[in-house]
Design goal:
Elements (H helix, E strand, L loop, with lengths): L1 E6 L2 E10 L2 E6 L2 E6 L22 E3 L4 E6 L6 E2 L4 E7 L2 E6 L4 E2 L2 E2 L6 E2 L4 E4 L1
Antiparallel strand pairs: 1-2, 2-3, 3-4, 5-13, 6-8, 6-12, 7-10, 8-9, 11-13
């Protein structure tokens, strides 16, 4: 089982592997293992995940920069991995692609607009 955990703002990749007599937990590049007996159970952690609103999909700026080109328009149907914007940052053009497919409801930015990391750019 693979999980992403965020603790105090830092994200960790966690993988839990269970074999016959052993449970392994891998956090980042560190691995921890525990022996287990036939009737023994190991309580690893109880994790609760925040509820997510899946009806509202957004594309956010991965870095700060300036919108150099908008490749789509409101009402367009976008496929996963499709380029939607070009974002200039530190003298480099960065292609912003969609992580999912859907119809664009609103484009919140304009060409030559400055954006900060995490700003919402497009709403589906």
């Amino acid at each position: 089982m693979k999980l992403k955990l965020r603790i105090k703002g830092k994200e960790y990749q966690v993988e839990i592997l269970e074999e016959r007599n052993e449970v392994k937990i891998k956090i980042g590049d560190k691995e921890f293992s525990f022996e287990k007996e036939e009737k023994e159970e190991i309580a690893i952690a109880q994790v609760s995940f925040p509820k997510r609103n899946f009806s509202k999909k957004e594309i956010k700026a991965p870095i700060a920069g300036i919108i150099s080109e908008i490749l789509v328009k409101e009402g367009d149907f976008i496929k996963k991995e499709q380029k939607v914007l070009l974002l200039s940052s530190m003298k480099m053009e960065n292609e912003i692609v969609s992580d999912f497919e859907g119809r664009i409801k609103e484009i919140l930015v304009k060409k030559n607009q400055e954006v900060k990391e995490g700003d919402t750019l497009i709403i589906f």
